[in-house]
Amino acid sequence: MAPLRDAASYGKPKPKVVLPPVVKGDLTGKTVIVTGANIGLGFEAAKHFATMNPAQLIIVCRSMEKAQASIKQIEKETGYKNAEPMVLDLGKWSSISEHWTVIDILVENAAVGIPGNYVPTEDGWESIGAAFSASISSDAYLLNIMLVRKLAEHLPQNVVPVTLSPGFCVSGLRRWAVGEVAEQFKKMEDESAYTSEEGSRHIIYSAIGGKDEELRGAFMSYLEPAEISAWMLKVEMIELFGKLDDRIPGIVAQYLKA
């Protein structure tokens, strides 16, 4: 299995490997939701899903204009006509309101690439750029892996939580960069980056390509479950969630209930 080293090597892309073609499936009658589906890996994943004939493909963006533009392009490239737009801005609690009775596949794709300046959200919360500028990005990635493993223990068997690393990909994530920083990113992309379409293959595989018992609680890297470090499996690390709940009573239960 692939080693768990993506967070540790953040900023140092690994050499590219040849990825297998995207997996295909029949999604007839299924409802698929993809967030951040107007650009990059989210958009490419949405296009792949569209070719599999889902009953509903929900394109989630931060603005209706972006969602509608994405739907128009998906229809043009795939011929799929059942995509629907949804506006969702995680910086606005009021936008988190719509729901479906049944969701078969939920791709919570999102990424942001901005300078580390302090920029509050509309509701006054610290933005991701400010938080990551405090050098906690590796902690966030680690907690993401641990959270998915914990969710797998509590969620019903028919719900399969997965997290993944698509590798270093070309996308609009670095469009803010200018000058020397932009030149450095361009050099890195030319040397070792995957295309957005190649990156989206990881999303599709994690959604439909593997067996549930293989994917449940897994951190996927290079289309297979990554080996989890021994220290993460220790009781002390697992008890971290209990310590978190001690500091913020009810936070774990509240999250799982939501």
From TrEMBL:
GO terms for molecular function: oxidoreductase activity. Keywords: Oxidoreductase. It holds the Pfam family adh_short. InterPro entries: NAD(P)-bd_dom_sf, SDR_fam. This is NAD(P)-binding protein. PANTHER family: PHOSPHATIDYLINOSITOL-GLYCAN BIOSYNTHESIS CLASS F PROTEIN, PHOSPHATIDYLINOSITOL-GLYCAN BIOSYNTHESIS CLASS F PROTEIN-RELATED. It comes from the Eukaryota. It comes from Gymnopus androsaceus JB14.
